[in-house]
Design goal:
alpha+beta; three-stranded mixed sheet; 5 helices; 3 strands
Length: 97
């Protein structure tokens, strides 16, 4: 029984490499994306990256860009509720086909 490691020691090694590549905020947004944007926009969009200036880059299918852009204030509010104020300032949209 003494050879067992605690779960937090094992997971720390895994998450450490993830947090080097992605910011903690981006991982949380990615995990909660369906709750942030809703089930309809979840099917046609996904977060791509978060830059150092607080801009979230999102890929959106071409026929849903206007809907996504219209909902951007609500999406930013949901992200603010999740992460706190001024973590993500705006959203950039990349069109996917």
């Amino acid at each position: 029984m003494k050879n067992f490691k605690k779960l937090n020691v094992i997971t720390h090694q895994i998450t450490k490499s993830l947090f080097k590549k992605y910011k903690r905020e981006f991982i949380l947004v990615n995990q909660e994306w369906k709750n942030i944007v809703g089930s309809n926009l979840n099917k046609v969009s996904y977060p791509k990256k978060l830059n150092n200036y607080g801009k979230l880059i999102v890929c959106v299918e071409s026929n849903h860009i206007i809907e996504f852009q219209y909902d951007s204030p609500r999406i930013l509010k949901n992200i603010e509720d999740l992460l706190g104020k001024n973590t993500i300032i705006n959203i950039g949209i990349i069109q996917i086909f």
